[in-house]
Write a structure and sequence with these properties.
It contains 28 helices and 31 strands. It is 34% helix and 17% strand. A hairpin with a 5-residue loop joins strand 26 and strand 27 (959-963). The chain is an alpha+beta fold.
Length: 1025
C-alpha cells in the first residue's frame, strides 16, 4: 500500500510549498492557493502529480493577477463582515460543488482505505428488482432461499468488514434482517455467500419481530424509519446478538488454531497455470484437520473460518458471486502465473510512482515505455473513434477499406501490464475494497488521456483496452464477468477450450445399433427456424387400435450412443454446457463436424425416441423409450405448421417497437430443404393437427395443476457482422466498421405444438428413469411443493389472470411469486415442478446443445443396454454399478453443471444480451444512428434509501437509476414513492457497468397517501409518505 505521507490528499499549505521554489512563503502569497479555476495544482485522486505548466501561468500574468487580487482584498476589508462573507460565498460557489464524496453509489468503488469501517454505516448488497420478469427458475434460481431463523453473512461493496445477520422473515414482499450490530434493515433479498440454516428458532425471533413496524408499512416509510435508527431495542435483541457473537468467537478460535495453514492456503491449493474451481467444503477438506468434522461434515463455525480466510486474499481466491450454487458456491483459485502478473504490475506501478514523485533527473521505468506506446495507439484510435464516458468507444468514422493502423512492438512487460489491465477492467477480479484497484487507475492517470472521465474506474479501463486494440470496440463485458470455468475468452468472439486433438477420432461404434427400431411408415416433423443449424428433435404420431388413444413420439438426436462419457469429446462439451447464442459470439457445445454433420436429425440417422400413450382427454396412459432410426423426415417452421393446421395461440400478443442500426442483412437460405404448407399431404396435415390437439389437452391438465401458462416476450438484440471486416495482428484487433444491431421483442412461435411436445418428452424421461432408480439431473421446485396451497391461490387469483389479459405483472407481483416458488433444484432425487405442472421433470430433448441432456441420454442408454442383457425390465432397480455415473458421482458433478448452465443463460438472456441493447442506445443517443425519444417515462419500482430510485423506462423496458443529485429540484428523495411516474431524460449510459442514469424533468403521476406506522410503546408515529 502506498505510504500515507504520499497520499493524493495534500493540504493547501503543503501544496503551496511544493508549488513554489522558495522555502519561505510570505503570508500574502496564500492567495495563490489552489482554486477550481486557478489550478496551480490540478485536483487529483491519484498519487501522480500534474503541476500546472509554465505556459498556462507565465510569471507576468501571475504578477498581474496578484496585484488585482490585492486591490480587491483591500476594498473588501472595508465592508462589514457579513457582506464580506456573503460576497465570498457568491464568488466561490463552484468550490462547494467540487467537494468529492467518497460514499459510493450502487456498483461503484468507494473509499474503504481512509474511511473508518463503521459497521453501523454499512450499505448491504441486496438483490435488484426483477425488472424484466425473469423466467422463474432461470436467471435468479440460485439466489439463496433464506428462511426465518437463518443466519447470513452480509457483504457490502463499500466495506471491508462483513457482518452477520439473522433473517426475521418476509413481510409485504420485503425480507427483514437483524444484524450483529443491532441494526434492522429490509431488502428485496440479500446477496450472501454464507448461510447457516435454522440458526435460531422462531420463538427466539418473536420478541424482535414484535418491535418491527406494521407488516403493511410501505418501503418508503421503512427507509425513513431505518434512517432514524428505529431499531428494535438492544435489550430485546440481546439473545440474538449473543448467539451471533458466540458464533464469531468460535469461528475465530478455529482460525487462530489453523492460522498458519489458512494464511498460506494458496500454497496448498494453487495450480501453476490453470484456474481451479472448488466449493467451500472441498477447500475446508484440504486445509482443516479431520478432527473438525462430525459425521463427515464440518461445523458452520469451521466453514466460516475458512470462508473469511479465503476472502482476505485479494489475489488468489475469488468467489463466483454471480454463479455460485446455493448450497456449495464456488471459489475461483487463480493460477500462480496470473498471480505473478498481478504482483509484477503492482511492483512496476509502485516503482513508477516513486520515481514520478521524487522527480529523478535520469532513468526511465518500464511503465514509461508502456505509456509512450499506449498513448500512440490511443491518439491513433481517436482519429477515427470518439472516446465516450459510456463504457464504450464511439463508432468508426472511416470506410471499411481503410488501411490497418500501425501497432507498436510490445515487450513482455508491456503485455503483462495489459494483462493486468484486463484482469482489472474486464474480469473485474479484485473486490471493490481492494487496494489493487488504485494501480489500474494510476496507469490511466499516467497516460494523461482520460481527463474528461469522471472517475478512472474499470469502465474507463475497458475503453482504454478498446482504444489500444486489446479488445474490439463492440466487445461484450459480460463475457469476462461471467466466465466459464476452465475456458479462455477469445478476443473478438468465441471461446478457447483446451486442445483435445481431432475429436472425431474419439467417436465409437453405435452401441445401440442392434437394438434400434426403424420407424417405417412414420413421418417425423422437425419444426425449427430456417436458420437453425443443429436439428435435435422432431415429432410424429402413431395411431392405435383404439380410436381415442395415440402414441405421441418425440424423436431426439442421439450423440450419446457414439460419444462415451469419459472421452475427450465429452470433456470438450462439458466446458461449455450449452450452445451460446450470444450475438457475435456463437459457440457450439459440440464441434460442428460432430453435431451438425453426424448427429443432426435426418433420414437414416440415429435417434432416441420418447413415446407417450395419450387419449383425447390428455391423460397419459403409458410411456416408453426406444432407440431408433428415422426414414421419413419433414423440415418445417412453426409459422408454416400453424398455417397448415390453422392453429393459433390463445396468448395475448404483447410486444413493442423495433430499433435498427446499420445495414440489416437479408435472411440466409435454410441449410436444408424446407416443406411449405402447400407441400404437405392431407394425412400429414391431419397428423400435425391431431398432435397439436393432444398436446393442448395435456397442457390443459398441467394448467389445472398450477402450471405457468406462458411467459411474455422480452426485448432481444441481434447483431450482424456480414459487412464488417476484422483485422488481427499480433493478437491486437482493429475493425474499421461497426456491427449492425436490431432490437425487437422476442417472437413466440406460431403454434405451441413443439413446446408442449418437449415438456412431454422431459416428463417421460423423468418418469422412466425414476421407475428404474436411474439417477439423472432431475429439475424440481421443492419449496413450491411446501407452499402448494399458497402458490396455487396466488397464481389462480392474481398472477395468471394478468398474463392472460396481456398485462405485464409488476415487479412486486413477480417478487411475490418468486418468494412462494423458491429456487429450481438440479438433483438426483425426483420431485414436482410447479411452474410446469408435472410430478417430475428433466431436460432431454437437446443433447446436441445442452450437456445435462447428454448426461440423461448416457444414463438412459446404459439402462437400455442392461435391460437387454438381463432380458428383463429394470423397474424397481436400486443398483447403479452399470451406469456411467453413479448417484454419488452425479451429486458431485451437479453443482458445477448448474453453475455453467446459469452462466450460459445469464450471458445470453441476462447481462450479455442487455449490453447489446445498451450499445445500440449509446450509438443512437450520442451519435444519432437511430431515432429515440428525447424524454422517457420513468416508472419507480424501488427506492434505495436516500441515495437513488430504481425504475423502468418506457423504451424496451430498460432498468434505469435516478440519483439524488439528478433530481433538478423537480422533487426530493423523500418524496419518491414506488409507483410514481416521472418524465426523465438520459444522463449517462454505461455499457460496461450495464447501467442507465437519468435526470428528472417533471412529475407525471404521483402516488401519495398518509400511513400510520405501528406504535412503539404507547406512541404512534405518523409519517407523510
Amino acid at each position: 500500500m502506498l505510504q500515507a505521507s504520499r497520499s493524493s490528499y495534500v493540504c493547501w499549505r503543503c501544496a503551496l510549498q511544493r508549488a513554489t521554489s522558495d522555502a519561505v512563503v510570505s503570508r500574502s502569497s496564500t492567495r495563490l492557493l489552489p482554486r477550481a479555476k486557478h489550478p496551480l495544482w490540478r485536483r487529483s485522486l491519484a498519487t501522480v502529480r500534474h503541476p500546472a505548466s509554465s505556459e498556462e501561468f507565465p510569471d507576468a500574468q501571475m504578477r498581474a493577477r496578484e496585484e488585482e487580487k490585492e486591490e480587491e482584498e483591500a476594498k473588501s476589508k472595508k465592508l462589514p463582515i457579513r457582506e464580506r462573507l456573503r460576497k465570498w460565498d457568491e464568488e466561490h460557489q463552484d468550490e462547494a460543488k467540487t467537494i468529492l464524496s467518497d460514499y459510493a453509489d450502487m456498483g461503484e468503488l468507494s473509499n474503504t482505505i481512509t474511511r473508518p469501517q463503521n459497521v453501523t454505516m454499512a450499505t448491504f448488497e441486496v438483490n435488484s428488482p426483477l425488472f424484466d420478469g425473469d423466467e422463474l427458475g432461470d436467471l435468479r434460481s440460485e439466489d439463496p432461499n433464506v428462511k426465518p431463523g437463518d443466519m447470513v453473512e452480509l457483504s457490502s461493496d463499500g466495506s471491508r468488514r462483513p457482518m452477520l445477520a439473522i433473517c426475521l422473515g418476509r413481510f409485504n414482499g420485503y425480507e427483514h434482517y437483524y444484524t450483529s450490530s443491532g441494526k434492522w434493515f429490509t431488502g428485496l433479498g440479500v446477496k450472501t455467500l454464507f448461510v447457516v440454516h435454522n440458526f435460531v428458532s422462531l420463538a427466539e425471533l418473536e420478541p424482535v419481530i414484535n418491535e418491527l413496524p406494521s407488516t403493511t408499512t410501505p418501503l418508503e416509510a421503512m427507509n425513513a424509519l431505518q434512517d432514524l435508527n428505529h431499531n428494535p431495542s438492544r435489550a430485546t435483541g440481546a439473545p440474538l446478538l449473543r448467539k451471533m457473537l458466540q458464533f464469531s468467537h468460535e469461528a475465530e478460535a478455529v482460525y487462530q488454531a489453523n492460522a498458519g495453514t489458512l494464511d498460506a492456503s494458496s500454497a496448498f491449493i494453487g495450480d501453476p497455470v490453470k484456474h481451479r474451481y472448488l466449493t467451500l467444503h472441498e477447500i475446508a477438506e484440504l486445509l482443516l484437520p479431520k478432527s473438525y468434522q462430525e459425521d463427515g461434515k464440518f461445523k458452520p463455525q469451521s466453514l466460516y473460518a475458512v470462508h473469511r480466510a479465503l476472502l482476505q486474499d485479494e489475489v488468489f481466491f475469488r468467489p463466483l458471486r454471480q454463479t455460485g450454487h446455493k448450497r456449495s458456491y464456488l471459489f475461483e483459485v487463480s493460477p500462480l502465473s496470473e498471480v505473478r502478473i498481478i504482483q509484477k504490475a503492482e511492483n512496476l506501478v509502485r516503482e513508477y510512482l516513486e520515481k514520478a514523485w521524487n522527480r529523478p533527473k535520469d532513468g526511465r521505468t518500464p511503465v514509461d515505455d508502456f505509456i509512450k506506446k499506449a498513448r500512440q495507439l490511443v491518439d491513433q484510435s481517436r482519429k477515427t473513434r470518439q472516446w465516450t464516458k459510456s463504457g464504450i468507444i464511439g463508432p468508426s468514422t472511416v470506410k471499411t477499406s481503410a488501411p490497418a493502423p500501425k501497432v507498436p512492438e510490445w515487450s513482455q512487460t508491456d503485455i503483462d501490464l495489459l494483462s493486468f489491465m484486463e484482469l482489472w477492467a474486464c474480469y473485474q477480479k479484485f473486490p471493490s475494497y481492494s487496494q489493487l484497484q488504485c494501480h489500474g487507475s494510476a496507469l490511466l492517470r499516467a497516460l494523461d488521456r482520460y481527463r474528461d472521465a469522471e472517475t478512472l474506474s474499470p469502465s474507463t479501463g475497458w475503453t482504454f483496452l478498446q482504444e489500444v486494440g486489446w479488445i474490439p470496440s463492440w466487445e461484450i463485458p459480460a463475457r469476462y464477468s461471467i466466465r466459464f470455468p476452465g475456458v479462455d475468452i477469445k478476443p473478438g468472439g468465441g471461446y478457447i477450450r483446451p486442445f483435445f486433438g481431432n475429436l472425431e477420432r474419439h467417436l465409437k461404434k453405435d452401441r445401440l445399433g442392434p437394438m434400434r427400431h426403424t420407424w417405417e411408415g412414420l413421418t417425423a416433423y422437425c419444426i425449427d427456424a430456417e436458420s437453425t443449424m443443429d436439428i435435435d428433435d422432431g415429432v410424429s404420431l402413431e395411431r392405435t387400435s383404439d380410436p381415442n388413444q395415440f402414441w405421441m413420439h418425440i424423436h431426439v438426436a442421439d450423440p450419446a450412443s457414439s460419444i462415451q462419457a469419459e472421452t475427450p469429446v465429452a470433456k470438450y462439451a462439458e466446458l461449455i454446457p450449452q450452445t451460446i447464442y450470444l450475438p457475435g459470439h456463437f459457440e457450439r457445445m459440440l464441434p460442428s463436424g460432430i453435431s451438425q454433420d453426424i448427429f443432426s436429425l435426418a433420414p437414416n440417422k440415429p435417434c432416441l425416441t420418447f413415446s407417450s400413450l395419450v387419449n383425447r382427454d390428455g391423460v397419459i396412459l403409458d410411456h416408453k423409450i426406444t432407440p431408433g432410426i428415422l426414414t421419413d423426415v419433414v423440415y418445417m417452421t412453426s409459422e408454416d405448421v400453424a398455417t397448415a393446421i390453422e392453429d393459433h395461440r390463445d396468448d395475448p400478443v404483447v410486444g413493442g417497437p423495433e430499433l435498427s442500426l446499420g445495414p440489416i442483412p437479408e435472411p440466409k437460405p435454410a441449410p436444408r430443404p424446407m416443406t411449405r404448407p402447400g407441400d404437405l399431404k392431407s394425412h400429414q396435415r391431419d397428423e400435425l393437427a391431431l398432435f397439436s390437439e393432444l398436446g393442448k389437452a395435456i397442457q390443459a391438465r398441467r394448467l389445472s395443476r398450477g402450471a405457468t401458462p406462458f411467459f411474455q416476450p422480452r426485448p432481444e438484440a441481434q447483431a450482424y457482422f456480414d459487412h464488417l471486416p476484422q483485422r488481427e495482428r499480433d493478437d491486437f484487433l482493429s475493425s474499421p466498421g461497426d456491427p449492425a444491431i436490431r432490437i425487437a421483442y422476442s417472437h413466440r412461435s406460431g403454434t405451441d405444438l413443439v413446446e408442449n411436445a418437449m415438456k412431454l418428452a422431459g416428463e417421460t424421461a423423468a418418469q422412466w428413469c425414476h421407475e428404474r432408480g436411474i439417477p439423472i439431473p432431475f429439475r424440481s421446485q421443492p419449496y413450491a411443493t411446501q407452499n402448494a396451497a399458497l402458490v396455487q391461490q396466488y397464481t389462480r387469483d392474481v398472477f395468471y389472470p394478468l398474463l392472460r389479459s396481456g398485462t405485464k405483472p409488476d415487479e412486486h407481483q413477480w417478487r411475490q411469486l418468486r418468494a412462494l416458488i423458491g429456487a429450481d433444484e438440479i438433483t438426483t432425487t425426483a420431485g414436482p415442478h410447479f411452474t410446469l405442472g408435472v410430478p417430475m421433470y428433466t431436460k432431454a430433448t437437446s443433447p446436441l446443445r445442452r450437456f445435462s441432456d447428454l448426461i440423461v441420454h448416457w444414463q438412459i442408454e446404459a439402462a437400455l443396454v442392461e435391460e437387454r442383457r438381463r432380458g428383463a425390465s429394470l423397474v424397481g432397480n436400486k443398483d447403479d454399478s452399470f451406469l456411467p455415473f453413479s448417484r454419488e458421482q452425479l451429486d458431485r458433478m451437479l453443482p458445477m453443471i448448474r453453475v455453467r448452465e446459469k452462466q450460459a443463460r445469464a450471458l445470453i438472456s441476462g447481462d450479455g444480451g442487455d449490453q447489446w441493447i445498451l450499445q445500440a442506445l449509446v450509438r443512437a443517443w450520442q451519435f444519432g444512428e437511430a431515432e429515440i425519444p428525447e424524454t422517457f417515462r420513468f416508472h419507480v419500482v424501488h427506492v434505495h434509501g436516500k441515495r437513488s430510485a430504481l425504475g423502468r423506462l418506457d423504451w424496451f423496458e430498460r432498468p434505469a437509476i435516478l440519483r439524488s443529485e439528478n433530481m433538478n429540484n423537480v422533487l426530493r428523495m423523500a418524496d419518491i414513492r414506488v409507483g410514481d411516474v416521472y418524465e426523465v431524460k438520459l444522463k449517462n449510459v454505461n455499457v460496461h457497468a450495464n447501467q442507465i442514469l437519468v435526470e428528472a424533468l417533471r412529475v407525471l403521476e404521483k402516488k401519495r397517501e398518509d400511513l400510520v406506522i405501528a406504535p412503539e410503546g404507547d406512541k404512534t408515529e405518523l409519517l407523510q409518505v
